[in-house]
Amino acid sequence: MSSIRSVLRTTARASLPSSRTFSTTPLRLNTAAASATDGEQMIRTILTDRFQPSVLKVQDVSGGCGSFYAIQLSSKKFNGLSTVKAHRLVNEQLKDVIKDIHGLQLRTMPEE
User: How would residue 24 be classed by pLDDT, with cut points 50, 70 and 90?
Assistant: First the structure.
């Protein structure tokens, strides 16, 4: 029985990682004080002109390389529309931007 415990202890020790890896990628806060990337500014301008939103948050969540954006948008233009139709409206306005990026996270809300 003690030999089994010895084997289990040795196996458990051998399977533990000897070092840990931590990400050193800096986080960028998207606040009014932080400067927006060119992509964020372009998206913000297009969506503001088309939808006159009460809420508009555009964030480059790709670490600043401009390949993935998270957008939150609330507008009266979405009242009475399904989520799919609202997303189609936004995608149509951003079609020239979308072709150059990898991904888009979109949250649209009707304005009350």
Answer: very low
- Please give the domain boundaries of the chain with CATH numbers for all domains: 23-110 (3.30.300.90)
The backbone torsions φ and ψ at residue 24, rounded to the nearest 5 degrees and listed phi first, read: -110, 15
User: Across 18-111, where does the E strand assignment appear?
Assistant: 55-60, 68-75, 103-110
Q: Say what the pTM is.
A: 0.66
> Pairing relation of β-strands 55-60 and 68-75?
antiparallel
Q: What are phi and psi of 30, to 5 degrees?
A: -100, 85
CA–CA gap between residue 80 and residue 84 (Å, rounded): 12
As given in the structure block, the two tokens for residue 55 are: 């809420």
Instruction: Report residue 74 as tokens.
Output: 């609330």
